[in-house]
Amino acid sequence: MTVRHFFRSMNQKLAGKLKQSSEFRERMWIVNVRESTLKNEAFVVSEDSFSEPMQWMRRQNYSEYMIDELNQLKLSQSINFTVGNAEHCILRVK
Asked: Can you give the pTM of this predicted structure?
């Protein structure tokens, strides 16, 4: 019985990791970066283009706290952060 429980537990963990790995590649974000009233840029960030989760955000110097908050966002939810002198408004669209 212990061996069966061990393999069931391992199978569940593996399935969870595989789902998590494939899920990040499906995520898509719309990021609006406002540095001033005259300088406003928008980006569509598809994680299909990157080799690891939140790679674009790490390149933009998002803190671990910000990345944790983004990981918890559900579809159609948004969040705002200040990064340097710019306000980043992020919407999860996929």
From this structure: 0.69
